[in-house]
């Protein structure tokens, strides 16, 4: 099969021929049709998140099951599926208590070493050299992953529309539903209207938020945010964003501010935009060593809540999200602004790095 292989920091990925991966017990193989280009992949390519090389990135996978391993009964060859970027082991302490979005084995094996849960990869070069896997290693014609991270796509839903549900949408849902518990009538700000920010805006509208303020420095992204459900927009390159948000909300600030990029400047906007007792939810993945400041007296005096959110709970929440898509209440396809053929996979990430992607870019593979 062909795969886009990451060989060194700040070097372009190379399309290589790798051996077809085969699933082991509890795993499935997927013929990949499309894969979203996510900022987390970009962090790895730039060396901002340490990860072994050579490796195959890509964790927003849509495709068709081509092979199932032993001990897999809920999936069959021919199933149209989408994956979650989190691959819950179902056995560790965190999974057992329902916190599978912070699965201990996922971070110890996959995020640290590029391995599945037997301590190995499923990807190899022709000479037998191992190639490590970032989640599913979805920037390839075939992917092997744990069955716990694979979900059937409802009839009538186009595969081409839903690959991003497994990361950007699931990340947004976890922040809204589990971290912040946004309710009907709440006011929210989404700081940075990129891929995850676009999903936050869509879902906040679905959740019934009364005010949704999108903040960005790109007028193109702000225009797209209005189409996705933002009630107000603020260009933080032209205005004092926290002050503008307070003016929009009658001087109060929002109930919840989501930081969706992982930068100090966007964190500071979120931090300064919430009402007393409000929540600041950090969703964007920052490069290691990024430090945001917060006055401790302000946290106590204003009863502020600072929360981190890594994603949703795959086995509980992915079926909910796919049902919303099937009923037309959530339209991830509306956030897709560019599609790239597999041969131009590096172009997708170069455009993402330059800030040119509005919403989500998708790499079409199969």
From TrEMBL:
Domain Enoyl reductase (ER) span(s) in chain numbering: 8-363
Keyword entries, A-Z: Metal-binding, Oxidoreductase, Zinc
Domain of life of the organism encoding this protein: Bacteria
Keyword flag Repressor: no
InterPro entries in the record: ADH-like_C (IPR013149), ADH-like_N (IPR013154), ADH_Zn_CS (IPR002328), ER (IPR020843), GroES-like_sf (IPR011032), NAD(P)-bd_dom_sf (IPR036291)
Cofactor: Zn(2+)
SMART domains associated with the record: PKS_ER
Entry keyword annotation includes Flavoprotein: no
Pfam families associated with the record: ADH_N, ADH_zinc_N
Similarity comment: family membership: Belongs to the zinc-containing alcohol dehydrogenase family.
Protein name per its UniProtKB record: Zinc-binding dehydrogenase
UniProt source species: Saccharopolyspora taberi
């Amino acid at each position: 099969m062909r795969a886009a292989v990451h060989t060194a920091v700040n070097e372009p990925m190379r399309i290589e021929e790798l051996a077809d991966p085969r699933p082991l017990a509890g795993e499935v193989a997927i013929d990949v049709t499309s894969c979203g280009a996510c900022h987390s992949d970009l962090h790895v390519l730039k060396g901002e998140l340490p990860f072994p090389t050579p490796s195959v990135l890509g964790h927003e996978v849509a495709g068709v099951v081509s092979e199932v391993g032993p001990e897999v009964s809920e999936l069959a060859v021919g199933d149209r599926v989408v994956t979650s970027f989190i691959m819950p082991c179902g056995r560790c302490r965190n999974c057992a208590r329902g916190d599978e979005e912070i699965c201990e084995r996922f971070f110890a094996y996959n995020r640290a070493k590029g391995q599945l849960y037997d301590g190995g990869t499923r990807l190899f070069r022709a000479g037998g050299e191992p190639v490590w896997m970032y989640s599913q290693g979805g920037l390839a014609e075939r992917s092997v992953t744990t069955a716990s991270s694979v979900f059937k796509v409802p009839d009538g839903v186009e595969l081409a529309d839903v690959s991003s549900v497994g990361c950007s949408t699931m990340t947004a849902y976890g922040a809204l539903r589990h971290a912040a518990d946004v309710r009907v009538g709440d006011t929210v700000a989404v700081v940075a209207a990129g891929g995850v920010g676009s999903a936050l805006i869509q879902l906040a509208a679905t959740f019934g938020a009364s005010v949704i303020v999108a903040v960005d420095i790109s007028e193109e992204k702000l225009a797209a945010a209005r189409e996705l459900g933002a009630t107000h927009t603020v260009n933080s390159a032209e205005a004092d964003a926290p002050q503008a948000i307070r003016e929009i909300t009658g001087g109060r600030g929002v109930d919840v501010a989501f930081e969706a990029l992982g930068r100090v400047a966007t964190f500071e906007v979120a931090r300064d935009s919430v009402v007393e007792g409000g929540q600041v939810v950090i969703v964007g993945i920052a490069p290691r060593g990024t430090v945001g400041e917060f006055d401790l007296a302000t946290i106590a005096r204003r009863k502020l809540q600072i929360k981190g959110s890594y994603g949703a709970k795959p086995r509980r929440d992915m079926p909910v999200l796919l049902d919303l898509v099937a009923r037309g209440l959530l339209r991830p396809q509306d956030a897709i602004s560019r599609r790239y053929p597999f041969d131009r996979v590096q172009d997708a990430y170069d455009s993402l790095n330059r800030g040119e992607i509005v919403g989500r870019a998708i790499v079409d593979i199969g």
